[in-house]
Amino acid sequence: MSEIPALQNPTHILIEKHAVKLLRIKKLMATIKHQWAAINPSMNFESPIWTETEIDVFEQEKKIQLPEEYKACLMEVGEISRDYFRGLLNISLRNRLAKDFTRMKKKAISATKVHNVGSLYGKGWINESCFNVLKEEDKFRLYRKVPLFSPDASYEELFRLKSWDAYLNGCLDLGDDKYLILNGDFKGEVWKYGFEPEGEYAPTKYRECFTPVSAKRPHLLDSIIESLTKNT
């Protein structure tokens, strides 16, 4: 295996703060590249590094402030190729549309619109059709001994947003339906749209929900480590 690269900006305040996790990510990336490069030479393992100046210029041009873990990742790990995750995660910013940045600046979903929806990963948001399915299951005690919602619970009160896709406001799309929340009550956490409950919450259909990506409620670097670890 090739030598694992050291930190490129070891004295930078952000890099010092997240050094352990960044080095862990680099080690995992080196392992994956070694495992797969010989098997499939066409896989793209390039991860363009951003300089601090490039990040500053980008933030000024887009009038947006990127999370510190995201910036630390760009400066040390780069825009990680999707092949490291086999299509699971993508951190690219270069070709985002103007509307994407407009949405990122909006207020993210608040804790008042997040409730127990039967996810193993914690409270989340669901669309109205799934809410109705869960209410019907509650009514007939399907799959659950204890109902998720009270009999008089309303979608309007619990989950209604200004628009059907407003749950993605204040989020940065990471690919594979994963999103980095940029502001508000869940700032810094990585969430995922869509899950299939297990065990007590076995579903009658695929649930369209927005919940933390795992029970650990990871922030970006921990989420990357989780994803890379699954592929080593």
TrEMBL record:
InterPro entries per the UniProt record, alphabetical: Knr4/Smi1-like_sf
Name the UniProt record assigns to this protein: SMI1/KNR4 family protein
Organism: Xanthocytophaga flava
